[in-house]
Amino acid sequence: MTSAAHSTRPRRDPAARAPIPRGVLFGQATRTGLALSPDGRSLAWLERRDTHWQARMSTIENLAAGGPGTWLTALPGGVEDVKWAADGAHLLLTRDPDGDERTLLSAVAIGTGSVHDLTPPGVSARLLAVSARRPGLLLAGVGGRLEHREIGTGARLSVRPNPGFFRWIIDHASLEAQGGLRMREDGGIDVCARVGDTWPVVLSVGHQDAAATSLARSSPGGRYFYLLTSAGAETARLVTLDTRTGRIVETLAEAPDADVCSVWFDPMSGRPRAAAFSRARKQTVMLDRDAEPDAHRLCPDAEAELTFLGGSDDDRRWLGMVSRADRSPEYRILERAGGDVVHRVAQRPELAEFELATPEPFEFLSRDGLTVHGYATFPPAATRERPLPTVLLVHGGPWERDTWRYDGLVQLLADRGYLCLQVNFRGSTGYGKAFLNAGDREWAGLMHQDLVDAVGHATARRWADPANIAIMGASYGGYAALVGAAFTPDLFRCAVDLCGPANLATVISSIPAHWTAARRSMIRRVGDPETEPGFCWERSPLSRIGDIKIPLLIAHGGRDIRVRRAESEAMVDALRQRGVPHRYLLYPEEGHFFRSRANWMHLLTQVEEFLAEHLGGVAEEPGPESDGALVA
Question: What start-end ranges are recorded for coiled-coil regions in this protein (predicted)?
Fold first, then answer.
């Protein structure tokens, strides 16, 4: 293990346009995860303190006067999420101190800054709800069980065993579980509602609707569930389920061409107030017509995306985030009575002085006739008179999607002179269940062909230089990068794999035992290593190691439990034996998601150098932001 130092190697001449510093694109002063206090007078947020995220807070009056706010934590490994307790006297922290996704909940007292843990170490915990009716308590999932905890002391007041749910359905007013979602052996989902101490099934959906069925929450008292589901429709819609009859009695939001991706609830009535649809740009629709003028005042820009983040207990103040892909997201606080935005906080204030790139939505037909969507982000100074070196940046999941938002990595690639292509290949969410399910058992198959067809689309339009294309991604995106190098080696000049699987059989077999639902879903959608080992092997990059001839950069976190480091090391050993040029970076203290800014900056520096070497773009000199990075 070594501590990263600055490189002294010579580097190519920089482009005429000075690159935006990495330290700006991934700013140290970034404020994220803002939360509004119950009385609407204060904000809490996460900000980098040294190299990790830590909690900070301030009254809005102090921020408006230019005050910096008060640091509340300096915890090892940092903080992942911050929420206000309903008592207004504590902040609730989600932490992953060891980077192994065994998260714990902690509380910090606003008055004294003292921190105490609410859940035990080594058992993954998740904050589920707080309530103004029971301000001294929280409801948490701890090792899958439901627990009421006293916020001031951490005392466990009640425990409810888990009857096999991977998601609980919560009445947020009473802090009581009213139901849950249970994964079936066949890949379908049962929606269960509580009757006394039993949990009868009130709705069942098959595998084809499972990925587009998720909890929203329970109405007060549990008579109705508000669910997102594609059952009975092509896209995920927001419905009201009567738990006594098992019938969907109302459709609150739906669209024929896009899934509902998020819901915001009225804190008074508990009913859905707004829903968002996942189109090329996220579109938020107010379900409460009386609140439409307030939403417009919060975000009058029709080109921007509005995300509701919460409000004060009396509903007089709202906190929202207004996003555009070509500038810093901005948090805004609306005073509903006067209709004024009373405070604004730029998430990344350092970006204000720089010209950023604008992602452009595009679509094309795959070779078997599916409409596939994506984003093309050109360098801001590009004239488009000639094809550009290109990075195909593949999203993870794969049951997720790329969106139109500020993305530091996309901006970094565009700023360094590359066309950045992002593709929502089949299996991606947001486009309905047929498109999502078209990705079943198509890892390294038609999912990869969609990426290949996207490259063909970009080269046919002379956007991309066919001789200078890299493929890059993390998690599933890292797997896709390895597949690109192994299955279509003549298409790409180089590949960058960040924590990607190399052998489908071993990555599925190593899923943690307590992630039962994830394992069942992977077997159904990818393949079963026990009953069809040959199929899993032929879809694995390691099976075609002899076909890899392009250079690779491979990086992994040593504490990753989703994709074990053995996946990358098996690939690296095979590359070494065959003399294929590669770089391998192991970050021993990181998991699947990087926590240390120094480590992340070091990795980005290596990515820049690697791409510049093989595609010819600009690489910024290593800077002090990666000082202290630990890499083996």
Answer: none
**DSSP at 7:** -
What does the alpha-carbon distance between residue 227 and residue 134 come to, in Å, rounded to a whole number?
25
Beta-ladder partners of 366: none
Dist CA 179 CA 154 (whole Å): 25
- Residue 358: which of 383, 334, 385, 380 has the closest Cα? 380
Cβ pair 383, 462 in contact under 8 A: no
560 is annotated as an active-site residue: yes
Q: What is the Cα gyration radius of the chain?
A: 24
- Listed residues 109, 144, 162: the one ending a domain: 162
Which entry of 560, 582, 596, 614 is annotated as an active-site residue? 560
Query: Would you list the DSSP string of 278-323?
Result: ESSSEEEEESSGGGHHHHHHH---TTSEEEEEEE-TTSSEEEEEEE
Query: Is 226 part of any domain?
Result: no
Residues in CB range of 482: below 8 A, 6 or more apart: 495, 497, 500, 501, 502, 541, 552, 571
**Residues 491 and 484: beta-carbon distance below 8 Å:** yes
Query: Where in the sequence is the domain holding 496, given as residue range(s)?
Result: 2-6+352-631
Tokens representing residue 553 in the block = 């950069």
Q: Which of 592, 596, 602, 614 is catalytic?
A: 592
C-alpha 179/C-alpha 201 separation (Å) is 9
**pLDDT tens digits for range 544-596:** 999 999 999 999 999 999 999 999 999 999 999 999 999 999 999 999 999 99
- With bands split at pLDDT 50, 70 and 90, how would you rate the model's confidence at 268? confident
Q: Which stretch of DSSP H or E encloses residue 508?
A: helix 504-509
- pTM of the entire predicted model: 0.94
- Cα separation, 325 vs 193, in Å, equals 41
Q: Is the dihedral of CA 97, 103, 104, 107 positive or negative?
A: positive
- 265: Cβ contacts below 8 Å, ≥ 6 apart: 172, 216, 217, 226, 271, 272, 273
Tally of domains within the chain: 2
Nearest in space to 412 (alpha carbons), one of 5, 6, 24? 24
**DSSP sequence for 539-569:** TSGGGGGGG--S-EEEEEETT-SSS-HHHHH
Options 475, 521, 568, 626, the catalytic residue:
475
Distance of CA 9 to the CA centre of its chain: 35
* Dist. CA 195–CA 176, nearest whole Å: 13
The enclosing domain of 361 has a CATH number of 3.40.50.1820
Sort strands 125-129 and 360-365 into parallel, antiparallel or unpaired.
unpaired
* Domain end point (choices 140, 162, 184): 162
